[in-house]
Amino acid sequence: MTLSAIAIWENRIAPLCDVTTDFVILDIDNGVLSRSLELFPTDIRAKTQALTDMKVKFLLCGALSEEFFQLLSESEITVIPFISGDLEEVIEVWIRNGVDFNWDEFSMPGCNGFGGNHYRNHDFVAPCKVNYHGHGKGKMKRRGQKNESLIGGVWCICKCGARVEHQPGLPCFNMNCPVCGEIMRRE
User: CA–CA separation, 117 vs 142, rounded Å?
Assistant: First the structure.
């Protein structure tokens, strides 16, 4: 039995884990999924204790404070932060891939992945390197510039090395590799 928790807000990943009270708890046992909605206190210490008491091993969430992150880490809960997106899509990818998945496709807006790009601002762990003038590390384009994903040039890739051009409106994780049948991910 491996329990995972996902911080939610209106059927999406909660943008700030510290203040949310709604969590979906997933129990994945031998490929069988059971899920429940749990309401937690707003206090991060009480929230950490509740997750620990339930024996949750993984927490998927948006942004969170350094203090909350430290509490969870000390309780041996693995945090997968800075995720955004539809709850059902995240659950599907989590069940299929788990911790080893490259979560960049689900990164919070303005963020180009979260590996090693944290900074401290107002005691919150932030998803990207951003200066105070609003110039982030994200993929947003200035007005008038073309977005690569709208004109092609973005690829879905597989572990086996296969590449397929990304189709607008179809997430790469919903595509199977034409070579080996594995789930693809965005390049």
Answer: 22
The type of residue at 32 is V
- The model's pLDDT over 37-65, given as tens digits with 9 standing for 90+, comes to 788 888 999 999 999 999 999 999 999 89
Kindly state the tokens that stand for 177. 């590799």
pLDDT score, position 131 = 27
DSSP string, 102-157: -GGGGBPTT-S--TT--EEETTEEESS---TTS--SS----TTPPPHHHHS--EEE
Strand 32-39 and strand 56-60: the pairing is unpaired
Considering the chain, what is the average pLDDT of its residues? Answer: 75
Residue 91 is given by DSSP the state H
Between CA 41 and CA 79 the distance in angstroms is 19
Residue among 160, 60, 66 nearest 103 (CA):
60
